[in-house]
Predict the structure of Preprotein translocase subunit SecA.
Amino acid sequence: MMTSPENHSLILNLSDSTCTIDGQGHLIEVRVCPNPVCRCQEIRVSLSPQTPDKACATDQSALDGQEIQFTLDLARRCLDTRGLSKASRAGQVGAIFADALSEDQWQELEADLHARKRKITDETPNEKIQAEFPADEIEQRSMMVGFLKILPYGEIKQLKIDDRLFYLSDHYCVKADCSCTDALVDCMEIIGTRDTEDSIINGPAVFLDYRKKTARIENAADADQHLLDEIIAALKAKSFTNFFSARHARLKALYRDYLRRNFSRTGRNDAHQSVGRNDPCPCGSGKKYKKCCLDKPAASERSALRSNQNPNAQQRSENSPAELRRLDPARRGLLGHSLWQGVCVTRQPTGARVGRASR
């Protein structure tokens, strides 16, 4: 049992979505942002008071409208106090609720957020998604776009070769005049356990033509040739080529819609128009830009700052080992999509077919 400075007591039981506040039972309801492109890690918690099972309907109706609502920031592991008075009942109960959560419970809520956002991502039609793209970089520099850069809660594929496990980060050319069927697949290997200092390491990058089923390897000078052959053979399987084809088609559809929304009327070719601090956030969350994504660096920028690595290397690795280790993918069977956001990368190695995208 937790007690706040204001002497509110709370007993928390996430397993059956209940808690007891000052002796009164409450049902816990959690809601997430319905926007599939929003990267926030916030959940809205509603605590609805409940009467005992044998109480009459009149007793329950008296409690209706007395629910307590507050927002938890899963990234910072705390109560979101924006627009919330700390002296209010919601502020006081929200604070003690956040303090009562163990790290395992925070991770449980985080996993639930990811599962819900993944379902939202999969079920939302493309025409209802207002995704943002770096059009200047795409059209002028033939930049390949990470799928999770655009839809941060999309599926992350796993690949197991012998006893080695890889997560796949896929990137595509979405240029309006390009018809290539290439996917750049970065293989990120998981080693050791979540307590290991470097549990995620960069693996080989594969340029795969998912239609012709041809592939080239990059950044694998020291890799075992047998492993490379097995990776290529696995990625050429129908289940993977169909997966990459569908992801590529979805990104291209979202990019075409982005171009129509932003440039069809103005004829402008600049990709990023300035966003004022008080303007609606481009991510579509409904919040003002200054209260949403203004101070949120991209995943690659955070990773470069935290791991102090070469920024060019970060074009391949969206996450530092420390970030991915915290997300505990082996335990939960998923990556923290809000951190593994994908990255836009320019890939034009000698002989690689992505050169077609720049012609």
